[in-house]
Amino acid sequence: MKRHSQNILPLVFLICAAAIFSVTSRNGGDKPKFPYKKAGLTKKQAAAHLLSRFTYGAKPGQVEEVKEMGLEKWFELQLEADLLDDSLNKQLVNYPSLFMTNKTIVNTYLRNDQILKRGIKEGVIDFNKDSIGKYNYTEHKAEFEAYMKSRGLKPNGELNNDLISQKILRAAYTNNQLQEIMTSFWYNHFNISNDIGECDHFTMSYEKDVIRPNSLGKFGDLLLATAKSPAMLMYLDNYKSVASENNLSPEAAAKKLQDMYAQQKQMREKGDTGTQYKDLTKKINGFKYAQGYNENYAREIMELHTLGVDGGYTQADVTNAAKVLTGWTFFPMSNDYGLEGVQKMIDKYGVDSLQRQGFVHDADFMFAINKHDKSEKKVLGYTFPAKGGYDEGLRLIDILAHHNSTAHFICKKLAVRFVSDNPPASLVDKMAKTFLEKDGDIKQVLTTMVNSPEFWSKEALREKIKSPFELVISTVRALDAKVTKPMELFYWTKRMGENIYRYLAPTGFPDKGQYWINSGSVLSRMNFGLAFAAQRIPGVTFNLKELNNNEQPKDAEEALKIYCKLLMPEQDINPAIKRLSPMLKDTAILNKIFASSITAKNTVAQPTQSSNDQMMMTDNMMMTDANAKKVVAEKPDVSKAADNSTALSQVNANNFMKQVAGIVIGSPEFQRR
User: Fold this and answer.
1) What count of Cα atoms within 13 Å lies in the side-chain half-sphere of residue 432?
2) Least confident of 121-135, 280-294, 534-548
3) Residue 343 burial by CB count (10 A; 0-12/13-18/19+): exposed, middle or buried?
4) What does the DSSP 8-state code read for residue 217?
5) 571, 669 contact by CB (below 8 A)
6) How crowded is the C-beta side of 351, counted as CA atoms within 13 Å?
7) Positive or negative: CA dihedral 567, 571, 576, 577
8) DSSP conformational letter for 138
9) How many CB atoms neighbour CB 227 within 10 A?
10) First vs last C-alpha separation in the chain
11) 258 exposure class (CB count in 10 Å sphere: 0-12, 13-18, 19+)
12) In sequence order, which residues have a C-beta less than 8 Å from that of residue 649 and are 6 or more positions away?
């Protein structure tokens, strides 16, 4: 693990920067400077823009730090992703599943039904079914928990908590911010959902061992790693995609299955239900399982992972790609995934013997040649000769990774993430050119992007709207907050509409502002800002006064100016001041804000397709349900204040700084990056 003391980080930054500068000078001169001056930006404004796009938000004083170091040097350090994270690593040791293999996780974190099945099989748990065929877990809770403890088993929910908690802590505190941004980007691009099958067992390793290490490497390596991961193989069903038995036609396969059913019926009518009958039943089940390839992954690797929906492939290409990828599965880890037959074969012949026959075993991945379609295939105009085995899949993935359509599709998604919802075609073309010339080197593509005038244009500044997760993490960073209960922040992220790791569709969450913003979601965001600033979120602490050099603003108006500057460094804060100042004087709005922040419910805001102008602050965004009226009645009415200009301080004279900071966090201006 990386070791580092947080208090010497600025010194290490400067040392590293000096070393880079020295090497650059010896090699014949400085590297090109970012063209932000042509866009009319100052160096500090450019530093703020850089931090807004390549981190989860600037921390206090970080804009000045990057300015002094040099923007180009800071960006190069982020590309290398080798800054040490001693403080973060000390927090991550609290999440044991983060350090487990897939196999250990699969056999440790189980659902209740899996635990029950094992206990009954071992003869340890004796449960009776009730009248509707369900087991009464509550009645046998002690017995159930005792069995789990004796076998070292843990509930699946703990795995989910570890997964979410480590993601929040990494995003908030890692010094390698760009790597974490890219990890999130690629996870969303190669999306899997914990709500599908047993994917939740594999998600931790998928993100930690597949996505993150390849997030700034070569795209082809990342594509292959995801293709071989148990998470992706299960999510899109390729782990059970096999060649039809003897490559039978659908008609011939149906005839053979019908014959076996007829034989089974005859045996049953004769009362012959012994060993032969059971063997025939297993044969039928195995034959049904082996009746052909599954096109899910073949389609998505083209449409979503590489070429794009308009990338030039046909249905015939999808079908043949599916055949190319038959036999790509994962190595058996337990008896819960229908791979018992594979395990028996391994037990009988041994891995070494099977590999000599064409099987491939690579960590958790397995290529089962006996399940592979051995016929000739043709994909995207490329011919794959018969009996090509595992190498067919490698060749297909290499073709897709280096395709011209892939270059443009991937580079546009990157430009959408880092520049604007509708990036200029000129920028995408430059990035795609680098992608093709540099073997899909993601670092080189990002370097091309950040050195392009389009990245620094006034049209790109603060054009992106933060997702709920980005809003939460940017708030933690902007207020330099200490988080000891990350799951409490997740509940707010979910409430605002982003249930991380559980987006069902393989598309991943849309990266467009209109997906996240509507009147309901803006209300949830305002509620979050107020709850966060008031320190009503358990396990989250910070010191607002300390951020202002331990000086307390004299009134709400001064506090508004101060916290706009602190939370939105190098932005023109005048629009925010103009928008938010009336809220400090309007007692009706203050009552609505106060009530809605108190009564925010544990419901999820549903994102809809709506225009960006819904980010504009209106009275309607402060409205909440009827319960708010009851809460307002129980709280001090700010309308009784003698001077409406100090109404906010009348709500809570000792905490108006928190109220002002909460309003700023909930404002449209802070929602943008």
Assistant:
1) 19
2) 121-135
3) middle
4) S
5) yes
6) 10
7) positive
8) T
9) 24
10) 32
11) exposed
12) 555, 556, 656
Please name the amino acid found at residue 363. Answer: A
- Cβ pair 115, 144 in contact under 8 A: yes
CA 274 – CA 270 distance, rounded (Å):
11
pLDDT in tens, 167-198: 999 999 999 999 999 999 999 999 999 998 88
Angle value at C-alpha 519, between 516 and 521, nearest 5 degrees: 45
Nearest to 427 by CA among 460, 397, 455: 455
Separation between Cα atoms, residue 403 and residue 96, nearest integer Å: 40
Q: What is the 3-state secondary structure (H, E, C) of 296-364?
A: HHHHHHHHCCCCCCCCCCCHHHHHHHHHHCCCEEECCCCCCCCCHHHHHHHHHHCHHHHHHCCCEEECC
Cα distance between residue 412 and residue 435, in whole Å: 11
Task: Name the token pair of 456.
Answer: 């620094």
- Amino acid in position 548: N
**Which amino acid does the sequence have at 373?**
D
SS3 547: helix
What pLDDT, in 10s, does the model give residues 491-534? 999 999 999 999 999 999 999 888 998 777 888 999 999 999 99
Q: Measure the CA–CA gap between 642 and 174, rounded to whole angstroms.
A: 48
How many whole angstroms separate alpha carbon 190 and alpha carbon 408? 17
- Please give the Cα distance from 470 to 468 (Å, whole number): 5
Phi and psi torsions of 636, nearest 5°:
-60, 135
For residue 377, report the phi and psi dihedrals to the nearest 5 degrees: -130, 160
Tokens encoding 325: 């990828």
Q: At what angle do helices 390-401 and 219-227 cross, to 10 degrees?
A: 140
pLDDT confidence bin for 253, thresholds 50/70/90: low
Which amino acid appears at position 22 of this protein? S
Amino acid, single-letter form, for residue 108: T
Phi-psi group of 387: left, alpha or beta (phi > 0 → left; psi -120 to 50 → alpha; rest → beta) = left
H helix intervals, 177-295: 177-189, 203-205, 212-214, 219-227, 230-235, 250-269, 275-289
Rounded Cα–Cα distance for residues 419 and 511 (Å): 11
Cβ–Cβ under 8 Å, residues 246 and 330: no
